[in-house]
Amino acid sequence: MPDTQALVNDFLNKLKKRKIEGSQATAKQTAELLRSVISQTRMPYTNQAAALIHSVKAVGERLIAANPVELAVGNVVRRVLHIIREEDLSLTTAAMAGLNLSAESDDEDDTDRDNHPALSAAAIAAASRSTLRPPSLQTLLEDLPDSAAVPHTSSSGGDSEGKSKSADKSSRSRKLKHDVIEAVNELIQDISTCHELIAEQAVEHIHQNEVILTLGSSRTVLEFLCAAKEKKRSFRVFVAEGAPRYQGHLLAKELVTRGLQTTLITDSAVFAMISRVNMVIVGAHVVMANGGVIAPVGLNMVALAAQKHAVPFVVLAGSHKLCPLYPHHPEVLLNELRSPSELLDFGEFSDCLDFGSGIGAPLLHVVNPTFDYVPPKLVSLFITDTGGHNPSYMYRLIADYYSADDLVLERRTTSGN
Amino acid sequence: MGAQKKGATARVSEDAEELARHPLQAILLADSFTTKFRPITLERPKVLLPLVNIPMINYTLAWLESAGVEEVFVFCCAHSKQVIDYLESSEWSSQPNFSVTTIESHNSISAGDALRLIYERNVIHGDFVLISGDTVSNMSLIQAFQEHKDRRKKDANAIMTMVVKQSKPSPITQQSRLGTDELFMAINPVTKQLLYYEDKAEYSKGFISLDKTLIADNPSVILHNDKQDCYIDICSQEVLSLFTDNFDYQHLRRHFVKGLLVDDIMGYKIFTHEIHSSYAARIDNFRSYDTISKDIIQRWTYPFVPDVLCGSSAIKVERQGTYRASDVTLSRSAQLGSFAFIGQGTKIGNDTKISHSVIGERCTIGSNVTIEGSYIWNNVTIEDGCQLRNAIVCDGVILKSGAVLQPGVILSFKVVVGQQFVVPAYSKVSLLQQPTQQDSDEELEYADSTSGTGELRSDKLNGAIAPDLSETASELGTGGVGYIWTVFEGAYDEEWRHSVAPIPTNKLVKLMLDKDEDEELLTQDGNVISALELKTDSDGNGSEDDNNEDSRDDYVSFEKEVEATFLRAVHENVKVDLAVLEVNALRLSYNMASVDCGGAIFYSMMKLAVESPHNSASELHRNAADIVTTWQKLLKSFLHDIDEEIEVILKFEEMCLESAKEFAALFPQILHLLYDKEILQEDAILRWADEKEGADESDKVFLKRSEKFIQWLREAEEEEEEDE
């Protein structure tokens, strides 16, 4: 596995050095990395799912530690873990259904329980998990055969069937890996197409002659606006420049080349302009489980202005940005302080930063946070690749994407912080 | 070493194919070839000293790696074993696409020697980055490299690109924020060619001279004094061969750069590349250590900041720029001020206050400790009630309860400071004895050529005992272990410039006054020499009116010696007679008059009074009174006539103005005290008053303050006369 090891290290390095920009790219690369980890994992005869989960978790923990601020990494790791569990569950239930038929003839329950502890353990775990998990439509449908299968697990196969069963198992193991990789591929597909999926909904939200305000630059927002433009909607866009990185300038340029009527304003002019705006559409860094948003700095101010003037505040976020964690102290703990040089020129201010004279302590402190936290009550609507959602609905959405077990694992690593 | 050689020869064979495209290479000098970080560097190489809790070399390597350098040659000289061991055990030895190779040498004494050795190894195959292991930066090398390459295509003589950054020097101290001297560079604004480089300009002269041909050859020249040399050079291979050709090149700047600039036969050119938004600085002395640490904490070096380098799960940034590791034991009543950094496993007790400081790993800090602007490394124990201001405390140091570190103190590895002991300002304390005076003098003079050996020689010196410095370890209080290094003659004056502590205000005021006078004089007639003379006059040393600079230096060091003698007498309860004898011996050896002795002793007494802890003016007065009472005999034995007594008053006046301002308010009281103790006769005081009567308004501040007392004296005198 030196191959994946090198890949992992390389990716870790990039994460640490903050060389990957944007959560979509990060999410996609994480998923691709985990796919190769899964394909390289040697499968044992028993409990393959646990082995996969273990190796994914081991890599995942390191990835998350490399840049805890980039929550998309953790999201994708959890998604992959969830996929493994789901695939395992569906395979087990399928196998269970098959075994149940044959098991009725044999009744040597107790001896066999020892012979196949792993199998039964996995089944019990699956059962317990399904009870832990909040009921979603999918699990509600699955629940019935699953719980029925559990008591019958022990009554599985006699010695005569041993050989055929191991053959069956190895094919199952290959099948599990295959299914998981298949599902991860789907996830990667989802991540890369999330812009299109979100943009498809643009026409439903942007109407003729509206004024849209956005801040900074987000690819999702760009695609969204362009999709509406392509559908012959005519509307105007106000772009707040997004100091100190001024990515709004780039967005404005891009919008103009695509033929959109664009107005560039400073961040501080947002409040003055908001009364003319029909809708605020922005991108997000991460959407938390409570519906709060970690977004580029300045957006909290925009959200407050929008609320004051009752302008809808719409957040676009691909499903890889949904984070199952709840924010605690997000302004500090989930933030990244960047270099002050983005704000002011070091040379010009170098005499203010001379610690040799005066009290010897810096009198000037430049704070350059990357993110803002927008509380859920300020958000009117989330548009994800699955459609529009209310902030209060986020936790249900998250329950569909993640298993409760994986949150516990993460909580242990993050509690070490 | 063997492996490296093999690697080198292997490289040579590949050379032909590699010429087309070679990996980006860097030479990292893991030795500064100076002694500025002594005594710490006697035990550990400078590049491994922790800078905000991470060894300096890690910042340099991390930057090189992220800037796209693929091959780094680390040149180790002093403590090479430690550097190599560290690199082998660190993450750097196992990076893909980034190889770190060490080159060891035991007899290189300068950067020039190092480069000559690297040239012999034949490992550099193209343009390379030349930096030292104490450089912190986050600049992108791509653009600078491209510029360098483009220039090279047009002009094969453009062999070096120097990275500079704007940074204004302080107008008062004439030094940059990094504690280096003000740097003058003449740069052609169009081509960016460097035309003149002077880092040791003589400020007393007030002007610098440029070669006439500079102006003639270049349509425009801009002379900068607000550029900081980042000591990041992009060099072509020729640089190495130039060092080999000119075997007397030692220092990169002083010899090499200046040499190329004046040499017009070969026509080699140096260009500059200015960086704006990114950061680059080199740790040259203790002041830059302090400044750069603060820059890192303020995140100018992002992404090379502790929470990113160590992984953010280990260290978190909190409000007010405080960094805290995950498992710190912090008492509920402890106060963490802004810009504090607390490392892993450190315990902090009740009511302890910490601000603007870096505290390393596994330290134990007691209750009621005050730590301000200090750098505390790993495994340090600080007991209850200690006070630390602007100090550097190395690994394994123990401060017993109540110990006080005054600004600028450096405690080297494993020093123990005794209970209630006050370590005086700017002292350097080490378990190792100071190398003998002669050696250090030599080093000061030829710092560039011999300092490297100095660092090496240290191992031999460990066992040697310097005869004149045989003070016992108890000079650090009861239970203390370590030697206080005496400051080199003449260097004391400069100590505050490069210390971690901020420059004391009285120094700044003095410098400002000096400067004003200089300027006035220069505008008058531009006579430089008279400016010098006047400066010594303005120092207010009555007895030295006609002396030149040299004897003033002598007097300063004499004063120091007397002070040290007096302090020893106080701490070790030496008998007054013996003290008198000692001071007399000093007087003879420095060829001073007894006038000077009286002044110097009085100065030391008052200084002791100021430095012993006190909260209010009245306590200070009591301190002074105690000391004067105990030692009046000593003082009296040097005050034989009225002139000498007047000298004491003048000395006191000077102190109140400069070094011990706290006394200013107490001036009349102390005068009264001295009169009461019969140290000063009333005649002396009255004569002083009469003398001052004619002085400038500004000089009469203290006269006015003590008007009442003098009035009283006069009346008493008159009464006496009447009685008769």
Automatic annotation (TrEMBL), chain A:
Any one of the GO CC terms: eukaryotic translation initiation factor 2B complex
Q: Name one GO molecular function term.
A: guanyl-nucleotide exchange factor activity
* Region feature Disordered, mapped onto this chain: 145-175
| Record key words, sorted | Cytoplasm, Initiation factor, Protein biosynthesis
Q: Which segments show compositional bias classed as Basic and acidic residues?
A: 160-171
**What is its subcellular localisation?**
Cytoplasm, Cytosol
Query: Which Gene3D superfamilies does the protein's record reference?
Result: Translation initiation factor eif-2b, domain 2
- Principal subcellular localisation of the protein: cytoplasm
Q: Which domain of life is it from?
A: Eukaryota
Q: Which InterPro entries match?
A: eIF2B_beta_subunit, IF-2B-related, IF_2B-like_C, NagB/RpiA_transferase-like
Self-association state and partner proteins as the record states: Component of the translation initiation factor 2B (eIF2B) complex which is a heterodecamer of two sets of five different subunits: alpha, beta, gamma, delta and epsilon. Subunits alpha, beta and delta comprise a regulatory subcomplex and subunits epsilon and gamma comprise a catalytic subcomplex. Within the complex, the hexameric regulatory complex resides at the center, with the two heterodimeric catalytic subcomplexes bound on opposite sides.
Q: Which family does it belong to?
A: Belongs to the eIF-2B alpha/beta/delta subunits family.
Q: Which PANTHER family match?
A: TRANSLATION INITIATION FACTOR EIF-2B SUBUNIT BETA (PTHR45859:SF1)
Q: What is this protein called?
A: Translation initiation factor eIF2B subunit beta
Instruction: State the taxonomy lineage.
Output: Eukaryota, Viridiplantae, Streptophyta, Embryophyta, Tracheophyta
TrEMBL record, chain B:
| Protein known as | Translation initiation factor eIF2B subunit epsilon
Assembly mode? Component of the translation initiation factor 2B (eIF2B) complex which is a heterodecamer of two sets of five different subunits: alpha, beta, gamma, delta and epsilon. Subunits alpha, beta and delta comprise a regulatory subcomplex and subunits epsilon and gamma comprise a catalytic subcomplex. Within the complex, the hexameric regulatory complex resides at the center, with the two heterodimeric catalytic subcomplexes bound on opposite sides.
Q: Family, per the entry?
A: Belongs to the eIF-2B gamma/epsilon subunits family.
Q: Describe the location of the W2 domain by residue ranges.
A: 552-723
- Origin: domain of life: Eukaryota
Entry-linked Pfam families: LbH_EIF2B, NTP_transferase, W2
Region entry Disordered, spans: 437-461, 533-553
